[in-house]
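User: I'm new to structure prediction. If I give you an amino acid sequence, what do you actually give back? Let's try with this one:
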Amino acid sequence: MPTPDDSSTGERIKEQRRLAQLSQRALAERIPYSYSLLNQVECGARVASAAFTDAVAAALGIDIALLTRPPHVTDMQHGRLASLVRPIRESLALYDLAPGGLTPTRPVAELALDADRLCQEVRATHLHRAARALPDVIGNLTLTAHTAPSTEAWRALASTYRTAHDIATKLGFPDLALLALDRMGWAADRASDPCLAAIRQYRRALGHAEAEPGLGRRLVEAGQGLVADQTSREGLAVAGQLHLGASAVAARAGNGSAVEQHIAAARELATRVGGEAREVHWLSFGQMNVTLHEMGAAIAMRRYDDALRQARAVELPPATLTSRRSRYLVDRALVEMETGHLDASLRHLVAARRTAPEQTRYHPRTRETVVGLLHTSRRTSESLVTMATWIGL
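Assistant: Good question. You get back a string of structure tokens that encode the predicted 3D arrangement of the chain. For your 393 residues, that looks like this:
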């Protein structure tokens, strides 16, 4: 019999009760325990015994494991995703080995276009489709880079590694994401491309932002050093994106003044860049990107009133990338929930699912928001139940 772990079990009982659309009194009538005890367990004042938890699971008709372990992607979902990314993991493991006796059968320009198309698939949030196609493109570019090395080949290979990082991050495989960034740095060095190398440091900083204090900041500074002398549109866009990365790192550390400094620096660079720089390594750096990062920083610092004001002022243009639109909707849903606008929160979650189902389903803020709605809504609607079931609660 699994052992419940203190008050967290009470939180899960509350979630599952709300999903079953039962009041506390209605559930208490189905178990051989009092309403008072159920209420105390759910609010964390009493620890749920193994017998109590077993009785609740039986009354709700659910597996007891749903009450005795932390909520996360279900085992079945995780197994499917692990199978999906396994070929990517294998292609990254063989980064330094070109298939023996083979020669490239496709020109590097064509393979570079394939790499760009995969970036586009990810920005369109077609994560599964991009994941299935990625290993073959990596394999072909690995062969080309080793047997007929060129700057274009190494640059395209670095791009595929960056795509592997993005897929791994969005599907919840942080170890694979970090491995992909190591491979990206390896290829960027061979391409002698300082902007690609700087983007890699930006991504590393975001991945390590919650690690030891100062690590994320040092990674951003390393990236800034790589493009310090760059005056091209590409260099300015990458420098601006690094400031946005620094703002995210500062926000997670609760350093509001540093956030303001980096956002201001990014806005100045966005003005110098001009319109949105979508052609620069798929960064899409521009004024809207700065605005969305400012909102994200407010969320990270739990300044939800500020974030709500910023979110409601945003008007995404029709050409906004699907991945960005979906992320905005998920962030907006969280902010609406945290400020007590529960119906608006659920509407934005539903809109995010409609916009980009794959990205929304696995985004941690989706789960955070759904759990928050289950805990705070006075009535559990069918729409909320559907959303909770869809993400695996």
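You can read the tokens as a compact description of the fold. Here is one thing that stands out. The two ends are 21 Å apart (CA to CA).
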